[in-house]
Amino acid sequence: MPIPDLTLQQLRAVRALAASGSFTKAAAAEHISQSVLSRRIKEVERLLRVRLFDRTTRQLDITAAGQAFLLMTGAVLDDMDMRLSRFMSYVAAQSGTISVAALPSLAAAVLPDMMRGFMLDHPEVEFEIIDGAADEVVERLESGTVELGVTAHGDLPDGFCFTPLLQEQFYGVAHHSHPWSAQSSISWSDFNGETVVATRPGTSIRAITDAAFSKYSISVSHHFNACSAATIRGLLRAGVGVAALPALELQGFGLDDLVAVPVDSPGATRVIGVMYHCSQDLSPVAARFLDFTRATEIDSPRGVSRVHGGYTGEPDTSSHAGAQPAE
Prior knowledge:
By secondary structure, this protein is α/β, with parallel strands linked by helices. The chain has helices at residues 8-20, 23-30, 34-48, 64-91, 104-109, 111-119, 134-143, 204-215, 229-237, 247-253, 284-295; strands spanning 53-55, 60-62, 95-102, 124-131, 148-152, 160-174, 195-199, 221-226, 243-246, 259-262, 269-277, 304-306. Helix 1 (8-20) crosses helix 3. It starts with 7 loop residues before the first helix and ends in a 21-residue tail after the last strand.
């Protein structure tokens, strides 16, 4: 026997009529006319080849077949209603998972406050955070593993957009016995002849420092290429070299016991923000979170400023003569 092709509207019409016992009440509950409701019930009975209701001028009774039909289809309707409710919550950006790849320092120092603020109005939203270097963030975005990347501004792959959020000051970081401890600021030229504890190639920090050292013909020794914050921290505390790090990296690495002197030179900043596919639609909740990051105020630590409208994407070339002395 072929299985009848019934619609959800027809199933709901049968349930409403059985629950109310009245065509008038059932039609009002389904927001349709009585004639439409009556046609739906008759069509279901025709397709099933069985009466679901006994009708008289004064009374409406559900048949045994009708009871069995409700028992079998009720779970379907309940499950569909639950799933549709979840989907509408997803469409309204009230639920779903936001997948984000982020630089480790940003995952530790920037994202948590943003996530907390966002979840005040979106408590059912879940976050999946994957931290990694700048090249790893781009790889995650290109592969579709994540929808958003919180990273430094750089050369954008085709089809990607970048929303700037913060600008960080670069600092020269060294052991407290280093001569920089007596200076209120340094320039890129102060790195000349130093042994630099550098992040590995492919990171946003390395791209900026390599460009600055090349531009100003600064000779440094890269004896140490570190892949982790813990390694950089250990090498600097051992006094084997110096580093050029942006402000949020200092906060993320926990380098408060070291000398951190602002670099007062053109280009000694890093702009960070959110990268995403501009040629593809974001999920509703990811799009809502992107709008939230643009609008929310961020409690910026020392050496970090909010980037507002008007950012062109060009490297900053302003001087930082007003930078604070090292603490």
